[in-house]
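explain this.
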Amino acid sequence: MLKARQKLGKYRIERRLGSGGFANVYAAMDTVEGIRVALKVPHASVIDETVLQDFRHEVRLAAQLDHPNILALRFAGFYENEFIISFPMGDETLSDRLSRRMSLSTSLDLSRQMLEAVACAHRHKIIHCDIKPENFILFPENRLKLTDFGIARVAQKTMKGGGEGTVGYMAPEQAMGKPSYRADVFSLGLVLCRIFSGQWSEYPFSWPTPGHGRLRLQLHSDMIDLIRRSMDLNPRKRFRDADQMLAAFLPAMRRTVKRYQDRKKRREEI
């Protein structure tokens, strides 16, 4: 465990931001460039060649993705016998943001950015495997960026996994060791449902979900259908990947905005 004000090469630790199964994440100051960064550092108790290989894998995956909604790497390598990955420092996670009220326009914009990020990964044949609000980082002007490709996998014709992911966010088949683009779509559907309904859907993910009344109040029926399709327990009934889901989301978003504007205009005329 690194402590506040401890130096790690050019980085000075400020505080710990969080901890996962394999690594701690710290806020730190880059004393050379004079900017704040987030550092991911593997737990000392689990560092071995296999863990380091996993982190190298994460670096190689993230390096393939050049997109405004995907968090870019600043540095990856060893400092004083510690393997670290350095990222730009954001303001908060999407999970943090969801604790406060959001306008419909903000909710739609963040949702679009979220789908744009995962669609980019899918176009590069990368399955994220851990889509959740904590893995989307917000930057100034509501710029959303996807991070943490630590358990992502390059898609193959036949894939077998070990059920990696976060319980409560992943598709049932992923929990059984069968990750896929459609599993990422399922997780995206859960997050969209949370954004617009204010509530989490829980296993067995039956429809209508908690907060369905709020969905009907805010969204065009096409958007509700999109969320329902993405959360279908049968993977074959979902969108094949985030790219196809994004293509359906954009017109549904425009119809939702028009519906909101029409209803607002009618209220003003009364």
